[in-house]
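Incident log, support desk, overnight shift.

02:14 A customer reports that sequence design results differ from what the structure should imply. Their input is reproduced verbatim below. On-call engineer (initials T.W.) acknowledged and began investigating.
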């Protein structure tokens, strides 16, 4: 039975360790956005630090709550002595062995102390709430960073795939003219060399995008605090962008209500106010209710007839109690309490100022993010129009080139225009999605889709 209990205990330890241990295995295969976010939150240093701070503050709340309860202590002392000593009963020197016991219970209850204890409890509760919001804020930040990093990978990957398709199209044209050249049917050799140069240029662009894609993956695993290894990300549904359905003022109001950063700043201000009141309460007198119970025993105690008094009877005979009120009036303690009040007042003013600055900065950031979103949407629309125009130009150029009416330079120019426009459209689309995710973050409604 003992071995079985030991084995169960070891299993619980292992399970608990795995629950709190950092994920250190490199990403492999295809990963989802949710998996990336979960790993990042678990491994992020700032998230874990804020979690520890929140746990410490929770303990401080427990301590402050305990200060509301009476202070009760019990004392027991048992002494054995031998040799010459003055008898407490005859007041003469005697040689004897003595057993002495003293027992008491004392208690103190604070009846009034200027609200210091009550306000200290409130301040600690608010500090704990602020630390929980700081923890949530850090989780939100790492979440938005992972989402943006994930979208960067998808955007770069989409551009890379488009570039590969463009390269294949150019290679097909190149192969056609190589066939004509080998059969002696190519009238202008420059056409083939221009296409060969275009193939090389497309391949160079692909190399650049491949490097950009790997860099984006490295940036993502840095947020996840993992070693780098080859992996793929799961595709997300990315519908055609539509204008964001919210105004800047409404987004700011939502952020004021939902953003953990704002809640944290507000809780810190309220905590500082309560801490100031708690410090000020220490300047007032403190009224306490005190009480205690006590008894004692001595092996030398004898009755009037000279017989030993039993242990239980002594405890009963010597039992005593007391109750009383105590009033402590602070007069001069080296300005300790006054200094605490002054420091608490400064902290109150500082946290209030920081809360206002946080709100102002948030309003500015929301406005700038909204402008960036509008600009990104306009850019996407204009890029869409450009793609349509360049596609028509390329269609005409391809027909005329195949008919021998366009030079290779004109054909390649038209193809480069439409290829670059398609790449720009992909970048503009994902840039707009990024801008909307930032606005979602400010409203506290981040979506994994």
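02:41 Re-run completed on a clean worker. Output:
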């Amino acid at each position: 039975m003992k071995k079985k209990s030991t084995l169960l205990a070891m299993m619980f330890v292992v399970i608990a360790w795995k629950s709190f241990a950092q994920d250190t295995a490199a990403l492999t295969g295809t990963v989802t956005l949710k998996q990336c976010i979960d790993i990042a939150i678990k491994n992020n240093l700032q998230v874990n630090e804020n979690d520890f701070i929140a746990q410490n503050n929770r303990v401080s709340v427990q301590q402050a709550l305990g200060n509301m309860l009476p202070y009760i202590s019990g004392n027991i002392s048992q002494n054995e002595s031998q040799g010459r000593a003055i008898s407490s009963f005859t007041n003469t020197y005697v040689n004897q062995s003595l057993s002495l016991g003293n027992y008491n219970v004392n208690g103190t209850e604070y009846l009034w102390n200027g609200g210091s204890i009550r306000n200290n409890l409130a301040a600690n509760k608010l500090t704990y709430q602020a630390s929980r919001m700081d923890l949530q804020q850090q989780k939100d930040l790492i979440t938005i960073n992972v989402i943006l990093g994930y979208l960067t990978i998808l955007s770069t990957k989409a551009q890379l795939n488009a570039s590969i398709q463009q390269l294949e199209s150019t290679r097909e044209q190149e192969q056609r003219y190589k066939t004509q050249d080998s059969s002696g049917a190519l009238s202008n050799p420059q056409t083939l060399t221009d296409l060969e140069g275009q193939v090389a240029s497309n391949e160079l662009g692909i190399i650049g995008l491949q490097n950009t894609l790997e860099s984006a993956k490295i940036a993502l695993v840095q947020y996840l605090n993992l070693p780098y290894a080859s992996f793929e990300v799961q595709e997300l549904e990315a519908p055609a962008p539509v204008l964001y359905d919210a105004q800047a003022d409404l987004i700011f109001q939502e952020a004021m209500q939902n953003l953990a950063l704002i809640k944290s700043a507000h809780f810190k201000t309220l905590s500082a106010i309560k801490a100031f009141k708690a410090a000020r309460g220490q300047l007032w007198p403190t009224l306490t209710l005190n009480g205690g119970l006590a008894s004692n025993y001595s092996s030398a105690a004898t009755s009037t007839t000279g017989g030993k008094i039993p242990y239980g009877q002594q405890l009963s005979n010597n039992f005593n109690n007391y109750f009383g009120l105590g009033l402590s009036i602070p007069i001069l303690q080296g300005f300790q309490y006054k200094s605490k009040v002054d420091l608490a007042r400064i902290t109150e003013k500082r946290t209030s100022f920081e809360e206002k600055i946080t709100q102002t900065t948030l309003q500015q950031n929301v406005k700038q993010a909204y402008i960036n979103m509008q600009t990104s949407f306009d850019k996407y629309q204009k890029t869409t129009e450009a793609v349509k125009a360049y596609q028509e130009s390329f269609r005409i150029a391809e027909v005329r080139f195949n008919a021998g009416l366009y030079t290779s330079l004109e054909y390649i120019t038209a193809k480069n225009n439409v290829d670059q426009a398609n790449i720009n459209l992909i970048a503009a689309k994902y840039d707009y999605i990024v801008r909307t995710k930032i606005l979602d973050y400010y409203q506290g409604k981040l979506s994994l889709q």
